[in-house]
């Protein structure tokens, strides 16, 4: 059995973990969720939930992973042997499978756009063309399945390289490039005529838009964006050395996530209002609006191609964390089995994702709870699976694990943890579980 793989640096870990969060969670999902759920009030709730609920759970997952030095399933079994807590890890793996199954579909959409951009397909297109282009892609069964498979093959190739040579190496140059380019794109979007209406939509909360469903969706977005509740960060933290300052890393990743989500909103919504679109376009928002933004720029075609490449990078960094979570559970520390289990897990994800890929075309007539198969997979993972997993993790750390054990683990590499430990422990033990349960009950109209 080979030695447990580890990150080579703190920066590599933070960029990889942030990449898991900053991928489609911030760039694709946040704008369309905010656009369909009130804009400013959704963003305000998202920020509050990230700081008070999601970030504390992120640190709890870091604790579990580094303390156990094991995959998502084995970690809970190791820290609480002969109990049912191991089911929390199984839940995380199942939800990771479902998320990556529809996530890979979006990765395929990006590859479709990239292929068209590289051959000059978008040259001389007008604003009204972009809705039709997006619809023609997602309704084509051969293309969506082919591109979904290609995306999974790329993801699998990186995961087969392991932590240092695969995930860390890719993330350390993908994420900074995306961040710089997105800042420039936000600046351009903000200079469009009428852009301030979009800024107001994003940053000015409208209390009349507040509903129980908005609260639940904002909570789900804070979990989805930080990749918590599915033990992905348990797996990533299992590769951490004892010298890592986990509270500082959790705070950095949470802050980056809020910043990138804000940045994505400042790219999308000013352009939405400036170009005469509506913000409630749904999952295709980024694929309809951004091409129109680039159409307004000098050398827009070249810049759009560069953006798609970087967006693909961001999507892949999120996919890395999800597939690694699944593969690590299969491997159980046997690094020599990584290639075999990557192939098995990646193939399983692709097969599970086929209905989501076809849900806008061949299977468009099939609905579950009035949602397409794709939207239903997104809903049950973000708003049921992840919050439930987060609730179990908060209860596990807050009530099952002795308080002294938690403190002693967090103080390693974090000598100043005593300053914030009481506040964090209070949140994880009382506020986080209560808030999640209350939101669950309210959203299902039980209270």
Give an overview in words:
The protein is an all-alpha fold and 447 residues long. It has one domain (10-443): Up-down Bundle (Amino acid/polyamine transporter I), CATH 1.20.1740. The chain contains 18 helices and two strands. The chain has helices at 10-22, 24-36, 40-68, 72-79, 86-118, 129-138, 141-160, 162-190, 195-203, 212-226, 232-237, 246-274, 285-295, 300-331, 338-357, 373-400, 403-411, 418-443, and strands at 367-368, 371-372. The protein has a two-stranded antiparallel sheet. A hairpin with a 2-residue loop joins strand 1 and strand 2 (371-372). Helix 1 runs parallel beside helix 12 (246-274), helix 3 (40-68) crosses helix 9 (195-203) and helix 6 (129-138) runs antiparallel to helix 13 (285-295). It is globular and about 65 Å long. The N and C termini lie far apart (52 Å). The model has no long low-confidence stretch (mean pLDDT 84).
């Amino acid at each position: 059995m080979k030695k447990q793989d580890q990150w080579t640096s703190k920066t590599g870990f933070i960029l990889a973990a942030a990449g898991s969060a900053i991928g489609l969670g911030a760039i694709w999902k946040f704008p369309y969720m905010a656009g369909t759920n009130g804009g400013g009030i959704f963003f305000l709730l998202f920020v509050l939930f990230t700081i008070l609920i999601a970030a504390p759970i992120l640190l709890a997952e870091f604790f579990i992973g580094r303390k156990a030095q094991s995959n998502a399933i084995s970690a809970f079994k190791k820290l609480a042997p002969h109990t049912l807590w191991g089911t929390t890890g199984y839940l995380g793996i199942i939800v990771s499978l479902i998320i990556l199954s529809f996530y890979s579909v979006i990765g395929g959409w990006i590859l479709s756009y990239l292929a068209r951009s590289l051959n000059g397909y978008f040259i001389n297109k007008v604003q009204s063309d972009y809705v039709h282009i997006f619809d023609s892609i997602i309704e084509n069964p051969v293309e969506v399945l082919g591109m979904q498979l290609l995306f999974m093959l790329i993801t699998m190739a990186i995961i087969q390289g392991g932590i240092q040579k695969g995930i860390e190496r890719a993330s350390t140059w993908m994420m900074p490039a995306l961040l710089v380019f997105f800042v420039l794109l936000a600046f351009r979007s903000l200079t469009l005529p009428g852009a301030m209406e979009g800024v107001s939509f994003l940053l000015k909360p409208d209390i009349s838009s507040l509903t129980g469903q908005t609260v639940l969706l904002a909570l789900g977005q804070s979990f989805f964006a930080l990749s918590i509740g599915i033990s992905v960060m348990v797996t990533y933290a299992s590769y951490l050395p004892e010298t890592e300052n986990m509270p500082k890393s959790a705070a950095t990743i949470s802050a980056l996530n809020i910043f990138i989500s804000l940045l994505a909103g400042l790219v999308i919504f000013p352009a939405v209002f400036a170009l005469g679109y509506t913000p409630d376009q749904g999952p295709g928002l980024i694929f309809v609006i951004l091409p129109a933004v680039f159409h307004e720029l000098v050398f827009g075609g070249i810049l759009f191609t560069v953006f798609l490449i970087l967006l693909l990078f961001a999507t892949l960094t999120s996919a890395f964390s999800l597939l690694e979570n699944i593969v690590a559970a299969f491997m159980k520390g046997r690094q020599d089995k990584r290639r075999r289990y990557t192939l098995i897990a990646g193939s399983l994800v692709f097969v599970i994702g086929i209905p989501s890929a076809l849900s806008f075309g061949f299977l468009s007539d099939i609905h579950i709870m009035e949602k397409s198969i794709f939207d239903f997979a997104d809903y049950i993972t973000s708003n049921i699976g992840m919050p439930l997993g987060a609730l179990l993790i908060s209860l596990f750390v807050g009530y099952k694990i002795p308080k002294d054990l938690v403190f002693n683990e967090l103080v390693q590499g974090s000598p100043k943890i005593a300053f914030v430990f009481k506040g964090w422990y209070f949140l994880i033990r009382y506020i986080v579980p209560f808030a999640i349960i209350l939101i669950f009950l309210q959203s299902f109209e039980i209270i």
